[in-house]
Request: fold
Amino acid sequence: MKYLLSLIFPIALLISCQKEDRAFETANKLISFSPNFSQTDTRATDDYSLSDYFNACPTATVRMIIGNEVKTAKYIYKAETKTLEYADRIPLYYPEDNSPYQLIISWPDETLLEEVNDYQNQDNKESFFRSDLLSDTINNAVAVDYLPVFFKHLRSKITFILSEQWETYTINELTVNGRKSFHDITNPNVGKNTYQMIYDLWVEEENSKGLIVAINKEGDKRIEHPFLFDVSDLKVGENRKIFIPFLYEFE
Reply:
C-alpha cells in the first residue's frame, strides 16, 4: 500500500505540473492565423486568390472580445508562411482561464480604410481589391499554433462582359454609375472584354438600377454608349455577370 501511494503521489504531481505548464503556455501564446477563403462562399470560383488581396494590402484588423473588454490589434500577412501574425497595437493571447471569447478578423485593416476611399476609385488593381471587404468571426476556439480563418466577402462583385462584336471597336473605358471600372489586362483568366466592379447596394444608395457607359475615344471625339442594368436581387458576396450586347453601329 505504501508502495502504491509512493507511486500515485509523483504521478499526480506530474499531471498537475503538466496542466499548469499547458495553461501557462496557452496564456502566453500570441494568437496567429492561417487565412483561407470560405468554401461555402458564392465567389469560391473567383479568378483571384487570397494572395492577390494581401498583395494589395498585407494587414488586417483583429478584435478580441472577452466579456465587456475589447482589444484591437493589427496583423500582417507573411507570404513565406502564408500566415497572419501580430504586428501592432494590443497583443492578443488565448484566455488563461478558458473564458468565452470572440475574434473578428477584418481585411483590409481599418486604419487604411479611414485613410483612402478605394470604393470610389476602383480603376486600379490595389483599390479594386481593397474595396472588397473580407471578414470572419471565430468563437471560443481551442488554442492551436495557427487558427484557421475562412474569409467571406462582405460586398458583391459585378463582372461586365462586352459581346464579341465590340472587339471591332476600341473601348477605352467602361464606367458604372459614373465611376471607372477595373479592366484587368494582366490576368489570363479574365477576358479582354471584361470589366469588374465591387458593388455595395448600400453605398449605391440602394439604387438597384445602375448605368453602364462604354466610352470610345477617337481623336478629339468621345462617344458614349449607355446601358441600364438591374441588380435588385443581388446578394452579399455574389459574383454577378452582366453581358452587354452590341446594339448598333457607331456613328
